[in-house]
Design a protein that fits this description.
By secondary structure, the protein is of the alpha+beta class. The protein contains ten helices and six strands. The structure holds cobalamin.
Length: about 240
């Protein structure tokens, strides 16, 4: 059992999320949703870092080198943030584990992941449970604050938490199909997400991955997978910018 109240934990998290208007965060009750490896944890902290609007607007028809660099910088920045938060939490005897923004290629986790393109923790699930947003038609997490224009990371903690926001159980995209229409891989079939609708029923992740690979090869002449057209296209991200 941890020795800090949720308010204390929140203070620690907030201290590391600066400038605060570039971030969203929230607490999620994850009981019953985690794989056995994480059995000691019952809650999650979802952290989202806003992507740069100018860079996102410029990838309407395909990724750019600038977007690729941005995405790497975001991964690094988020990694440092979750590291620092976990260090502070552990100093205060809160048992926690950070989950990185991305899967490192050729790590021991990479091979099993490749089979079905599912990682051991979905950041989007932590984020919907924290009530920060929902899943869109191209399987992006669409936040209430930045639309899908954000990069996510998570921290799992042992103690129970009180999500300040109600978890969001279904899509709020309605009849909007912009991301699905713009997807160059035609990976989405237009069906709306809810917590009982698995990814594979509305989104073909393999098709998406292949297209990301083609873009990466065209741009860098090597095995880099990147796209971002759906992230750029979402009207919710655009309205805000
Ligand atoms: C595997 C993976 C891929 C694969 C498969 C993508 C996919 N959609 O599953 C490939 C290589 C194709 C890919 C591509 C891209 N990816 Co990617 N990828 C991941 C990774 C590592 C794991 C995702 C995973 O496990 N998927 C398996 C399915 C089952 O889970 P899911 O898609 O995350 O979400 C499902 C569950 O969360 C469920 N769910 C949600 N809430 C709840 C609640 C309950 C109670 C339940 C039961 C279920 C549930 O609903 C979703 C649909 O079923 C995550 C990082 C991470 N650890 O989460 C990044 C991540 C999803 N990728 C991301 C991005 C940005 C991309 C790209 C745009 C690449 C780029 N940077 O240019 C593309 C576009 C992808 C797209 N439109 O989905 C971001 C998404 C940000 C966002 N706004 O959503 C993530 C979160 C990385 C990050 N740190 O921000 N990616």
């Amino acid at each position: 059992m941890g020795s800090l109240s949720q308010t204390d934990i929140e203070q620690i998290v907030k201290k590391h999320l600066l400038p605060s208007n570039h971030f969203i965060y929230g607490f999620a009750d994850l009981r019953g949703l985690l794989i056995p490896e994480f059995r000691e944890f019952s809650s999650g902290i979802s952290i989202g870092k806003k992507l740069d609007d100018t860079i996102l607007d410029s990838i309407e028809h395909g990724p750019t080198r600038e977007y690729y660099e941005h995405y790497r910088e975001m991964n690094l920045a988020l990694e440092q943030i979750i590291d620092a938060i976990c260090r502070d939490l552990r100093k205060n005897k809160v048992n926690c584990i950070k989950v990185s923004p991305t899967v490192v290629m050729n790590s021991k986790e990479f091979k099993p992941y490749l089979k079905d393109l599912r990682y051991k923790l979905s950041h989007k699930m932590v984020a919907t449970r924290a009530g920060l947003g929902w899943i869109g038609k191209t399987d992006l997490f669409v936040s209430k604050t930045f639309g899908p224009r954000l990069r996510l990371a998570s921290i799992l903690i042992e103690q129970n938490s009180n999500p300040g926001n109600r978890p969001i159980d279904k899509s709020r995209c309605g009849t909007c199909d912009v991301c699905a229409d713009k997807c160059p891989a035609h990976a989405a079939n237009g069906r709306l997400w809810d917590i009982h609708t698995d990814r594979d029923l509305f989104f073909d992740a393999q098709k998406c991955r292949e297209q990301c690979g083609r873009f990466g090869m065209d741009l860098f002449k090597k095995e880099i997978r990147i796209c971002g057209i759906c992230v750029s296209a979402c009207p919710l991200g655009r309205i805000r910018s």
